[in-house]
Amino acid sequence: MPRTQTHDTSRRGFASMDEEKQREIARKGGESVPAEERSFSKDRELAATAGRKGGKSVPAEERSFSKDKELASEAGRKGGSTKHS
């Protein structure tokens, strides 16, 4: 039986699913661990280290804060505030 695809991509895997199915699966992942059990919630140093690593992966001239000083200032003002404080 011939395939009815109109393009040459695979019909398998997450990327081939319709968007609603992808959202459903992604939503389950976000709900699977309560916020207080997530590793970054328990270990601020781990979160800080991950943030520093992420920042190093992008050249300085390509970083958002390097391009937009107002954005950097706003983020700095928000700093340690959280929604649940």
Automatic annotation (TrEMBL):
Transmembrane portions of the chain: none
Biased segments, Basic and acidic residues type: 1-11, 18-46, 59-77
InterPro entries named in the record: Stress-induced_KGG_rpt, Stress/Virulence-Domain
Region called Disordered, residue ranges: 1-85
Protein name, per record: Stress-induced protein
Highest taxon listed in the record's lineage: Bacteria
Source organism phylogeny: Bacteria, Pseudomonadati, Pseudomonadota, Alphaproteobacteria, Hyphomicrobiales
Residue ranges of coiled coil: none
